[in-house]
Design goal:
CATH class of one domain: Alpha Beta
CATH topology of one domain: Beta-Lactamase
Radius of gyration: 60 Å
Number of helices: 17
Distance between the termini: 66 Å
Shape: elongated
Number of strands: 17
Strand order of the largest sheet: 2-1-5-4-3
Strand content: 15-25%
């Protein structure tokens, strides 16, 4: 409860008391800045994970590539050792026995030196891509030590005390490791490979010589340099005793790995990576096994160098957030001004109205909610002004209003008098026609009088069918006298229909349309037939003529809602009034008569109660 009270007090004191403009700016900046920070942070974390995974994957790929090159290199050297071991001239020399004279010894050494020369240096570069130094140490040839014209053919006594010689007891290729070989006048760092060579004597395999091949270490050093993850990275190759065999930094060769970094490598895995400190600096240590050599490749990569891409990305994130903040501030200022500007104008105008000045000069040209608000405000002030003016109107204005009322009553009375005057005048003309025995004129005048009487019907829009039929019959009598032999008509409508109610003037416009568009265009024998019946509460009246055959589809299109034809306004008006009074399912429809001419079908519902 206390916390709620403190929160409410804080909101009231620091938020609700500031202006709308300030609140809008704060709300807008927060609404833009918070999502931007969340999105940017999420993207940064996600990108960091992706980049870290890519770096680790790249290092792993580099180590795998390095492993493949090293394995292929030693496989090539193994193939060369096999070629030397199977060389027929070399085998022939190794199978010789009881050589006592110096000439034969020199000949043997020269033969072996010549054969090894074919594998020395560039002659086999297509297989090894680097320089190799083969040497052969022959068993039972102590005499070889007496001659020094070649450094490739020696007696086995030169290596009998070497540990690797004692440990290597089979004919397989054995990789010894680091070595320094005297090649000509210089000492070269190499990797030594050893193979025992045998001959067959009396169906027994006998050790005849030991073949060593020294591979120049610079080749491996260059490979390790090429696949460094960063300029400050180090790639190492360590043997089973954790001694550094190869490195892109030659000063590390021969040192123990423990002196540089502790390996937490899981021996059951082929690849592993983790972060540890080396000389106070965070390093990514990646280890890859070389199963066939029982060696391991180790990559030491400074985290600071690997994270250069991440640092650049972090700067971009900060820049984006700063730009978003500036843009949101500018947008918030514009938005606040757009919102509070009209409000300020309204407040200023209200102050003027409060002081009694109702002349509003408030201009707002935009089409938005404020435009509606200002418009309604101006209308309201105008109404208030009118109400005030009405309070101070004089008795003269009241009298003027009374005079207007009397004038309206007089006009209404005149409207009632005019139809009676028309009927009385037509009745007088009828009596004069009868006096002078002009029966046609009398009939036309009576029909015209009836026509107007039923048409006016005291201003009502709804009449009985009896009056509607009498009205159209009066119209037809007038037209029959007018056209004489050119027109005759027939009305056959069920007596039940006479009791029903309908909209006024729905039959006469259709009959008039038939006379204008059909009867007037034929010379003689024109005929109009009105038939009517009731079925299931539906009144159906047909008005047929025997005139020309119009386009029925075009005629029916007059009644569509999207019709823009200006002709036949009367028919469209009849159809529209029927639908308005009785419903959309009722109205007019044109059909073509089989014997020629057109029929208009009128469908309306049966209504016998005036209130309905």
């Amino acid at each position: 409860m206390w916390i709620k009270f403190v929160k409410n007090k804080f909101l009231y004191k620091y938020i609700f008391k500031v202006s709308i403009k300030t609140r809008l700016i704060v709300y807008f900046i927060l609404s833009v800045l918070i999502p931007t920070i969340i999105i940017a942070t999420t993207i940064y974390i996600k990108s960091t994970n992706i980049i870290t995974a890519k770096i680790d994957s790249s290092i792993k790929k580099n180590l795998m590539t390095t492993e493949n090159i090293i394995v292929q290199k030693f496989a090539s050297v193994g193939d060369i050792s096999t070629l030397i071991a199977l060389n027929s001239k070399v085998i022939d020399v190794l199978e010789r026995t009881n050589i006592n004279n110096s000439a034969a010894i020199v000949d043997e050494m020269a033969t072996l030196d010549q054969q090894l020369d074919s594998y020395y240096l560039s002659n086999m570069s297509y297989m090894t891509s680097t320089t190799i130094f083969p040497r052969i140490y022959v068993i039972n040839r102590p005499e070889y030590n007496e001659f020094n014209f070649t450094d490739k053919v020696l007696s086995v006594s030169k290596i009998e005390n070497e540990k690797w010689y004692k440990d290597h007891t089979d004919g397989a290729v054995l990789i010894i490791g680091n070595n320094k070989s005297q090649i000509g006048y210089k000492v070269v760092d190499t990797i030594k490979v050893v193979r025992r060579m045998y001959t067959i004597k009396n169906i027994q395999q006998m050790l005849a010589a030991v073949l060593t091949i020294d591979i120049e270490a610079k080749y491996f050093t260059d490979i390790l340099k090429d696949f460094k993850a960063s300029p400050g990275s180090s790639n190492l190759v360590i043997d089973e005793s954790n001694t550094i065999v190869l490195s892109n930094d030659s000063t590390l060769i021969g040192k123990k790995m423990q002196d540089i970094a502790k390996l937490n490598f899981n021996n059951t895995e082929k690849y592993d990576s983790y972060i540890d400190k080396i000389n106070g600096e965070n390093m990514l240590i990646s280890v890859k096994k070389i199963p066939s050599l029982k060696w391991r490749i180790v990559a030491l990569s400074p985290i600071k160098e690997l994270n250069d891409e991440l640092i650049d990305f972090k700067k971009i994130v900060y820049i984006v957030i700063a730009v978003c903040m500036i843009l949101s501030l500018i947008t918030a200022l514009l938005l606040a001004e757009n919102v509070t500007g009209p409000v300020k104008k309204l407040v200023k105008s209200m102050s003027k109205v409060k002081s009694g000045d109702f002349e509003i000069n408030l201009v707002y040209k935009r089409n938005d909610e404020f435009a509606y608000l200002i418009s309604e405000y101006k209308r309201m002030v105008s109404e208030i002004k009118k109400l005030i003016e009405k309070l101070y109107t004089s008795d003269l204005e009241q009298k003027k209003a009374e005079i207007k009322v009397k004038d309206a009553e007089l006009k209404a009375l005149q409207a009632q008098i005019n139809p009676h005057f028309l009927y009385n005048t037509l009745d007088s003309i009828n009596w004069l026609a009868l006096k002078y025995k002009a029966e046609d004129i009398s009939t036309m005048v009576k029909s015209l009088s009836n026509f107007f009487r039923y048409s006016l019907n005291k201003g009502s829009n709804v009449i009985s069918f009896e009056d509607e039929i009498k009205q159209v019959e009066s119209y037809l009598k007038i037209q029959e006298i007018r056209f004489q032999d050119k027109l005759n008509y027939k009305i056959d409508i069920s007596s039940e229909i006479y009791e029903c109610y309908t909209v006024k003037l729905i039959l006469q416009p259709i009959v008039e349309n038939a006379i204008i568009h059909a009867i007037e265009k034929i010379k003689v024998g024109g005929r109009i037939v009105l038939l009517g019946s009731i079925s299931n509460g539906i009144i159906e009246i047909s008005i047929s003529d025997n005139g020309l055959n119009p386009d029925i589809d075009k005629m029916n299109s007059l009644f569509s809602s999207d019709s823009n034809q200006t002709s036949s306004f009367g028919l469209r008006n009849v159809n529209l009034r029927i639908k308005q009074f009785f419903g959309e399912e009722y109205g007019l429809k044109f059909i073509r008569n089989s014997e020629g001419g057109t029929t208009v079908i009128i469908r309306i519902c049966e209504v016998k109660n005036w209130e309905d």
